Give the backbone structure.
Amino acid sequence: DFFMKTWVLPFNKGNAEQKELLGGKGANLAEMTRLGFPVPQGFTITTTACLDYLENQEYLNPSILTEINIAIAALEDETKKKFGNSQNPLLVSVRSGAKFSMPGMMDTILNLGLNDETVLSLAKDSGDERFAYDCYRRLLQMFGNVVFDMDHQLFEKIVADYKQTHQLVSDSDVTADGWKEVIVAFKVLFVKLKQRDFPQNVEEQLLLAVEAVFKSWNNQRAKTYRRLHGISDSLGTAVNVQEMVFGNFWDTSGTGVVFSRNPATGEAGLFGEYLMNAQGEDVVAGIRTPKSIQTLKKDLPKVYLQLKEICEKLEAHYKDMQDIEFTVEKGKLFILQTRNGKRTAKAKLVIALDLFKEGMITEQELIERIEGNDLEEALHPAFCKEDKKEKESWVSGLPASPGAAVGQIYFSADQAVEASKRGEKVILMRAETSPEDIEGMAISEAIVTCRGGMTSHAAVVARGMGICSVVGCENLSVDEKERVAYADGQVVKEGAVLSVDGTTGDVYIGELRLEKNNTQLPLKELFEMLDKQSSIAVRANAETEKDITTAMELGATGIGLSRTEHMFFEKKRLMLFRKLILAQTLEERIAILETLKEVQKEDFKRMYYVAKGHPMTIRLLDPPLHEFLPKNEEEYQETAEFVGKSAKEIKQKANALAEVNPMLGFRGVRLGVAYPEIYQMQAEAIMEAAVESYFELNNWMEVEIMIPFTTDASEFQRIRQLLEERIQEVFHKYNQPVPYMIGTMIEIPRACILADEIAQYADFFSFGTNDLTQMTYGLSRDDSPKIINQYMTHGLMKEDPFQVLDEKGVGALMKMAIEKGRKIKPELKIGICGEAAAHPDSIAFLKDYAIDYISCSPYRIPQAKLLLAKG
Ligand code: ADP
Ligand code: MG
Ligand code: MG
């Protein structure tokens, strides 16, 4: 078995399927080599070798070593260069790459193979001494950092000091002699900190580098990243050893990152950045501000065209948007990496739809590619337009990851984490971010940086996490020590409230109001596809014009729950309703009901108007009456004035209405039994509105009147009869009947058990999962959290049944009720409403129920549709 293991594989022997063995980077380098793309040659030391090394107490077994040596020899032959030779030396990069891309998590070393001798040859062959010593000092820097864990800031300080002493501004101003001086200082640093010299032996360099990459699999950053992304610890990383090409060589060289489509918006066309005369990660590191890929057209027109063609080919080959790293050496293009690009949820949606339209993927593939929470994320909040107009931004940068967030600023990841633990909403503001910041970034509402471009660490990570982000705010400075940021003469201290708009790249001092934003998303097209895939529709819980409008835009096929009591919450109506409750005589009540009816009728008409003929379930009054009575002294006074009674009298009434256990008391259909005139008034309002709308819109409204809290067929039958009387009167009055249904909410276990009896009289069932859960468990909704927490800590409950429906208990009751009801009445319409029904884990089993729809809050509709459509 040991002898069957693959320790090393040259690029020209592998392919894209071997991600497990070669890591994502290695497998794609092999695939591109196989397909004839211009990839510098090299080989991959496999994840198998990594695991073997880590399992054997970090011991590199001799067969791995032998295979590495063989591979180097082969690479020497192919490149006609020699590793460590003083003439024509082979230089390589040592690049980590696990199965799943972990940006910036593992480490890479460039220019390996340089030493005091080979650098002379590089200088001579290239005719550019400055270039050669620049490469060498970079090797020392990366090697020291990756292999010996020397703080990279120590190296940077040496460079900065040198530049300051010699009054130089940028790295490119440093001459060959300058770099030589810096290199001497670097070497001293090795001795001082590590009590050893930088290894001049290139074989030693390679082995130390390979082992360092292997070990980096277990560093804290990598572990944290894996934990946050649910990646297994037992995969290991591969190491790619690849011939160096040089982007830091004259002015016809450069390096960059390009996406085959825009990763923020999904827009078609190349999107990316590059730097001329630069190496490796200069682009991503945000040291210099890179140029947009579009200017490459002017800088190197031939290379641009070639790059564009390669991007298109790679995208067509992988059938997905690619994130490509390239380097140009003296006008010659090399591709150093490709992978499926990370993108925002919105871009995911746009790209999937475009790829489908371009015939690259099927409808089914499209649906599978979009994940449950993408849609919710794509509907990220935005700031109110009025607020944005009124306020001037404090600083602006690049819109790296869309969305909008308000929070308090912190200047270090640790402080951000602390603040978030205190329950604050946090905005992380840094000069630039690095992988060490990852935990602080994960808990932030927004990330703002002073430096770096659209592909900088901050931008990539924020997009991946769906966190709003603005990067590269050029005139912003952050003083981490003093805990202040300043720009434009204004100083902002730690803890101050800022508003960040990742869609436009603006940062504001103070708080802007949020507005949900779902424009520009091709939702309609998507919904059409999704709806074809499932027989279960998705409706909305909504009762205001605004919510109904939103719900319709978000693909609701109707309103599954419209709670009429919500219409009484507004001040004036509440007063009127209080007056009703406090009325002494039936006549008094009827007079008030007449006014209330007109109010509700107008509400319903407006609601029908925005629901555009889609079905709407309207629930008659449900909560116990005393919930509408005043809560404090002030309210008592106010109410007393309005109804013309003394506060004392009202208090007496309130006492009379008080119940020991109101949730099991005078509510729902029981109110209808006690005060039939209230339910009748509501039925009248609903139907008058329906007939009048029909006249005005010439369109039937499918009205479904829902009686809540039913326990028995007899009570339902009684109320139905009372309602029918009024409804007939309405039809008579207008001389125009319209269709309607009367059904019930099934939310008490007894109703589930007697569903067959109730179905004889009801046109539809709608399960109210909140109450049904409460009563099935005998667990009060309002007091449940502390009890559930207890149960969870003892491992007695896996999930909060108010968040994820309880399949075993509540689900079984619903199933029974569905069966019993359909047996009596096969055409019985059945829905499930209640937020928990839309939870992904609930949908996972509700998919198989014989129901017509589920109903949830508007913003959860798209996700619910998607999950129902997935196979
Ligand atoms: P990461 O996984 O962090 O992106 P990479 O292994 O891709 O690390 O290396 C980072 C960068 O180093 C690459 O984007 C590329 O610019 C540069 N690089 C890596 N290998 C080579 C090489 N053989 N020649 C030139 N540049 C290289
Ligand atoms: Mg990196
Ligand atoms: Mg890379």
